[in-house]
Every structure is written in structure tokens, then in C-alpha cells.
Automatic annotation (TrEMBL):
Residues 158-221 form the Multidrug resistance protein MdtA-like alpha-helical hairpin domain. Residues 1-22 are annotated as: Disordered. Residues 66-310 form the Multidrug resistance protein MdtA-like barrel-sandwich hybrid domain. This is Secretion protein HlyD family protein. It is found in: Membrane. SUPFAM superfamilies: HlyD-like secretion proteins. The keyword Transmembrane helix applies. Its main location: membrane. Residues 150-177, 202-275 form a coiled coil.
Amino acid sequence: MADQNEQKNNQGAENAPEAEPAPKKSKRGIVLVVVLILAIAAGFYFWRSTFTEDTDDAQVDGDLYQVSARVAGQVVHVDVTDNQLVKAGDPIAEVDPKDFEVALAQANANLASAQADLEQARVNLPITHVNVRTSVSTSGSDVLGSQASLSQAQANVAAAQSRVDQAQANAVKAQLDVDRYTPLVAKDVISKQQFDAAVQQAAATKAALAEAERSVKAQQDQVSFAQQHVAQSQAQAQQSAQNAPGQVKAQQARIQAAIAEVAQAQAKVDQAQLNLGYTKIVAPISGIVSKKNVDVGENLSVGQDLLTVVPLDNLWVTANFKETQLKQMKVGQEVDLKVDALGGRKFKGELQQIGGATGSRLSLFPPENATGNYVKVVQRIPVRINFTNLEAENKDHALRPGMSVTPDVTVKQ
């Protein structure tokens, strides 16, 4: 038994040195496994990295509302301070309204005067219609009257002519009597008295003939006058008939002019009311007051900037991606947003727009590359990313424009 144990010990001693390489093989296997795992992880990470595109050149963006004065005047009250939260419609400042109240009263007075002129013009329109009709009717009556006078004058001429004929016949007869009595009186056939009576009768008939002829001439003058009056009355009637529509149109034009003056006066009243309302300056949107530059007693001019209101709801992200990252980017892709200032707090977004030009091209001084020492530089293009659930994720309104953001755009599903 002792010999056998000794023999086993000797064999164990001989085999002991040959067992040393076993731990080395085990270590190499572990290293290979680790390297393989790391290679697989790196490959998986690299493969997975092709699913997204990210950048650290991004920030929260939003509209900045510049509040300015719309009327000139002295500030009598300021209601806000820097970094104050305001809601849309909250008072910001007030300009002295007294001058604008006076202007409104003057505009109202001018409007009342214009309305009175319009009412007068409207009242005069039916009066003008009546006057025109009366003028036309009167001129027509004058024509008829003058024509009647002409007819009467012509009749008088005819009557006077008849009297002339009668007087002429009487004168001829009387002269014949004188001619017959002349030889008879010389022979004492008739008395001297009878002859003298015949001579006197002849003289009287001649005088009556002359009077009748003058009457004819007078009546003929009356006919000429009546003819002129007829022509004048006819001209007046024609003129009245022609002018009647024009007079009515002229009055209607006065009404239209008065209506225009009323509209103009009303516009001035509306403008005065607007200017009076502009004396109370209010917040155009809810947000934070920044860059306040107005104090009580300051005289404002139209368009002068007073402060800036930074909204906390209408926000988005502007990310400047390298041009090499845009190959697979499309509108509508999902984006994970991590905000640095909020301890990496994450938000959900959606790619909304890809900029129309690179940031360098849109800068104040765009680079000119037509030089001999040109070096190609990877450009960045602004990309707009909208928050998809901002109201729920930003209930505390912690986001502020300008905060740094790291966006991860999912370019593959």
C-alpha cells in the first residue's frame, strides 16, 4: 500500500507542471468574449445610431412681440415691470387722453354739422321738384298768355284798319261835297254857311282818317311787342323745361356730396375714437415682460418701442443641423427633445420645416468664397421642430426662448 501511494504521489508530481496553462486559456477566452461583446455592442450602437440624427446646436425659439406706442403723448401710468407675467389684454401703460378726448368731441361736432347739411339737402330736394314743376307750368302759362295777347293785338289792328277805311271813305265823301259846293256857292245856289259846313266836315274827316291811321300804327306796334313777348315766353318755357332735370340732378348731387361729407366726418370720429383707445396700451399676448423701456412722465412718439412680450405657449425649436445630416430628414418625422436647462427634461416634437438657406448665407455678412484660399466648411441649415404636446408637457411654463436643446430626429423606424 505504501508503495502504491508513493507511486501515485510521484505521478502527481510529474503531472503538476503540465496543469499551469489552463488558467491562461481561460483568460484568453474571457478577453475574446468581452471583445466580441464590445464589438457587437459597438456595431449595434453604430447601426442604431443610423436611426437618428442629433445636434447640440439647437435652441428653443418663439415670437417676440414688440409693444410700441400708436399715438404720441405723455405717459401718465405704467402698470408692469420687467419679467412680469401678463395676460393678453392686461394694461401696460397709459398715455394722457385729454387731447384725444377733445379731438373726439370736435370730430363729433363736425359729424353733427355734416348730418344737418345732409338733412337740409334732402329737404330741399322735394322743394326743388315743386319749384321746377311750377316754373315749367308758369312758363307754359306765359306762352299761352302772350299768344292770346298777340291774337288780341292782331284783332285790334284789323279793327283799326277798318276804322281807317271808314274814315277814308268819309274823307273822300266830304271832299267830294266840297268840290260840288264850290261852284254852287260862287253862283249863290247854296248859302255860304252850307259851303263852310261842308269844308269843315271835310277837314274833320281828314283828321279822323289821320287818327285812324295812327291807331293802326299803334296797334301794329302792339302786335310786334306781343310777338316779341310770345318769343320770349316760349324761350323761357323751353329753358325751364331743359333746366328742370338739371336742377333736380344738381340738388341730388348736393345730397350725394352731403352724404360723402357725413361719411368723411364719421371716419374722423372713428379715427378719433381709435386714437383715444390707443392711449391705453395693453398686452397683445400672454407672456413675460422683457426690455421694459417706458416710465411715467415720458413723452412718447408714434412707433416708439416700449417693451417686449415673450410668449410661453407658442414655442418651437430651431436646430442647426449639418448639411450632411439632412439626407434622410423629412417633414413629419418624430423628434425627441432634451432641454439642458431643465436637467435633461424631455419633450416630444415633430420636424416641421427645413430652412431655405444655410445659416451663413442668411447672416448679416454672407461669406464670399471666390478667393484663392477657399477652404470647404460643412454648412449648417436651420430646421424647425414643433412641440407636439407642449400644453401638457409644459404646464409649468418652464421653457424659455433661447434655452439649449438636444434634438434626436428619428430618420428610420
